[in-house]
Every structure is written in structure tokens, then in C-alpha cells.
Specification:
Layout: H1 5-21, E1 23-24, E2 29-34, E3 41-46, H2 47-62, H3 71-81, H4 87-99, H5 106-118, H6 129-144, H7 148-165, E4 166-167, E5 172-173, H8 181-185, E6 186-188, H9 189-206, H10 209-224, E7 235-237, E8 242-245, E9 249-250, H11 251-269, H12 274-282, E10 294-295, E11 300-301, E12 304-307, H13 311-325, H14 329-333, E13 338-341, E14 343-344, H15 346-356
Helix pairs in contact: 1-15, 2-3, 2-4, 2-15, 3-4, 4-5, 4-6, 6-7, 6-9, 9-10, 9-11, 10-11, 11-12, 11-15
């Protein structure tokens, strides 16, 4: 599969079509589509996925793409239907509003988020994406509308990331802000990539070299640990920067989350990311399952490759023990007992749009 401008344009078109098919007009929310175990099912109307998808739709509109879905309205409906005091929900909503250049909803979002962040105890035992989403939202909002309150809150989360979450020895972020050391060290790709994205945006907006350094180290570690198809692993040991379990490999990591974090780093530091992003995208068509994750007829990108039950549970336990008892790392990196995860969540298509709309000139070319 040749990864070029046309291939990415096709992914953008599929994502716009797919999100339209996932829209429930009666609730003004987006739902997940499932193709496992019989006829297609549509379930899990998700306020959070709706807000996340509004980020990508706003990026698509800004790049000149047409869509009947209104990003602002999706942001508002998702915000209304979601948890009113959850830090990650408010952080994502602020992120969406900032990408849209301001929606007037900040007056509802920002004061609530700032009040929640004053309660440091609320960040105990939360996974890394929670403060990372808040930091992204605060950084982008500050870029549009500077204030000392936002600067202070963003600096607090930046310090939380670098002083309590980042493990310099392994080049990765611990999964939880606080808690039992063993549980914190078993970390996920999502924690890594959202912290890398958050610190890239914070470093760019506030001119923070140390934040950019940590984000670059994390990105380098994740890239180094990819499989031979360019796939990013799912579970890691933060303390030594090794893989705890390679699978599932999620398509959204390949075509959305990793590219958008690397593009943010490229914008902030000048880092070249074309080759890595092409290799990441190629996994959609060339992977351990030997099949394409892209289904244009259904307008979905399948969720990824995962281990069959009960092998998935066994490999997770092996991964948790691997760095403690010296299990051969080839075990947790093996590609045994795999099957397709034939679902598609709306935020996946939203992240494709956010990653690639307006960046088609950054697909091809040598580094």
C-alpha cells in the first residue's frame, strides 16, 4: 500500500461520511457501530465521543471540507449530556471550543474546570489522559484568550506531568498520577500520547523547553517500540521503557492519535515526522492480520487487532509480571491468537480529521 496524499484524502472522506452515519438526530449525539456476532448494531450513544468528534469536525471545516454536522452544536449537546464536573470531559470541551476559535461556551466550561483543578485530591488515582486533556484545553484556550488564572492552572498540570508522572529512566509517563507503584508503572499508549500532545502544545504556547523535551523523549520511546509493521503497542512498563503487552494494536493510534501528537511536536520544535506517520498509516492495510482495517462501503475503520479470549487475559497477566520475574520479552511481543475487532467508535474518525485536515502537504516527501 502506497501512503500518499490520495490515500489520506480517502480516509478524510470516509471519516466525514462515517460520522454522518453515526449521528442520532433525536439526541444530537454520536454512537458506536459494531459488526461482530451478526448484523450491524448501533449502540453506546456517547457524550464524550461526541465532544471529541467535534474537534475533528471543526478542523475539517477550517480546512474547507463540507459537513452537515455542526461542530459547535455537537460540542454543546455532548457537553450537556455528559458529566458536568468531570475534569476530562471539561478539558475536552475546552479543547474543542478553542479549536473552533471560541464558541461562547467557554463561560460554562472554564470556571467549572478551574474550580475542579483547585481540588488536587480529585487528580489522585486518575489515569493520565484526564489531566492531559485539561492541559491541552487550557493551553489552546490561553493562546486564544490569555489570562493569569488559565496560566496558573496550566502550569500546575505541567508540573504534575513532569514531576510526578514522567519517568526519565524509561522515557514514559506513569499511568496514574498517584497510587500503588506497581499499578502506576503499568501504563497505556493513550496515557503516553495524550501527555506528549499536551506537553507539546503547552511547550509551544508558553515557550517551555523542558515540557517539549519530555514530549520528545516519550515520542522517541513509543516509536522505538513499534512492531515491524509500524504498529504501536498498547501496554508498557514506564520504569524501564519496555512493552508489557503489544496487543491490542488500535487503528486510531495509527491514523489519528500518534500523528496528531507528532504534528504538534513538529509545529513546536521543527521535528520531522513524515516517514513515521506514513509507516503508522500503512499498518491500516499491512498488519498482523493480513487484512485492511479500512472499509469504504461501510464508511468505517475497524478498531484494530486484539487477542482472542482467553489469551488476551493470559497475556495481560504475563505482561504485568514480565519486568518483575524476567519473562522473555518475545512472549508479550508475540502476534499469537489474534482476531479483528470489528467495531468503530466515532472519536476515531474525529481524530483522523483532526490529525490530517489541513496537513495533506505533510504526507509525502523524504526526511
Amino acid at each position: 500500500m502506497i501512503i500518499n496524499r490520495t490515500a489520506v484524502e480517502d480516509l478524510i472522506g470516509l471519516s466525514l461520511d462515517g460520522l454522518q452515519r453515526m449521528y442520532d438526530p433525536s439526541r444530537e449525539l454520536l454512537f458506536t457501530r459494531r459488526f461482530e456476532g451478526g448484523p450491524e448494531r448501533s449502540d453506546h450513544l456517547s457524550p464524550r465521543y461526541t465532544v471529541m468528534s467535534s474537534v475533528g469536525l471543526a478542523s475539517a471545516r477550517a480546512a474547507g471540507y463540507e459537513t452537515a454536522l455542526d461542530p459547535r452544536r455537537l460540542l454543546e449537546s455532548g457537553l450537556d449530556a455528559g458529566p458536568q464536573d468531570a475534569i476530562d470531559h471539561l478539558g475536552m470541551a475546552l479543547w474543542s471550543s478553542a479549536v473552533q476559535g471560541g464558541t461562547g461556551l467557554e463561560a460554562r466550561i472554564l470556571p467549572r474546570l478551574l474550580r475542579r483543578l483547585e481540588r488536587e485530591d480529585l487528580l489522585h488515582h486518575v489515569v493520565g489522559r484526564v489531566p492531559a486533556w485539561a492541559l491541552i484545553g487550557l493551553s489552546l484556550h490561553f493562546e486564544n484568550e490569555p489570562s493569569e488564572a488559565v496560566r496558573t492552572a496550566a502550569r500546575f498540570l505541567r508540573d504534575l506531568a513532569l514531576q510526578r508522572c514522567f519517568d526519565e529512566s524509561g522515557g514514559l509517563f506513569r499511568h496514574f498520577v498517584t497510587g500503588i507503584a506497581f499499578a502506576r508503572e503499568q501504563t497505556l499508549f493513550s496515557t503516553q500520547i495524550y501527555w506528549a500532545l499536551a506537553l507539546a502544545e503547552y511547550g509551544r504556547v508558553f515557550g517551555d523547553i523542558e515540557a517539549l523535551r519530555a514530549a520528545n523523549i516519550c515520542a522517541d520511546t513509543l516509536i522505538r517500540l513499534r512492531d515491524r509493521f509500524g504498529g504501536y503497542a498498547w501496554r508498557y512498563h514506564a520504569h524501564n521503557g519496555t512493552i508489557a503487552e503489544r496487543f491490542p494494536v488500535y487503528s486510531v493510534h495509527q491514523d489519528g492519535m500518534a500523528p496528531m501528537a507528532l504534528f504538534s511536536l513538529a509545529r513546536a520544535t521543527g521535528r520531522e515526522v513524515r516517514r513515521v506517520n506514513r509507516e503508522s498509516l500503512r499498518w491500516l492495510w499491512l498488519n498482523q492480520l493480513g487484512r485492511s482495517m479500512v472499509d469504504p462501503e461501510r464508511a468505517v475503520i475497524y478498531r484494530g487487532a486484539r487477542r482472542r479470549f482467553p489469551a488476551n487475559r493470559i497475556f495481560i497477566q504475563l505482561g504485568r509480571a514480565s519486568s518483575l520475574v524476567g519473562i522473555d520479552p518475545r512472549v508479550v511481543r508475540s502476534s499469537a491468537f489474534l482476531r479483528l475487532n470489528a467495531t468503530c467508535r466515532p472519536y476515531h474518525l474525529g481524530w483522523v480529521l483532526h490529525a490530517w485536515c489541513g496537513r495533506l502537504d505533510r504526507v509525502e516527501g523524504e526526511e
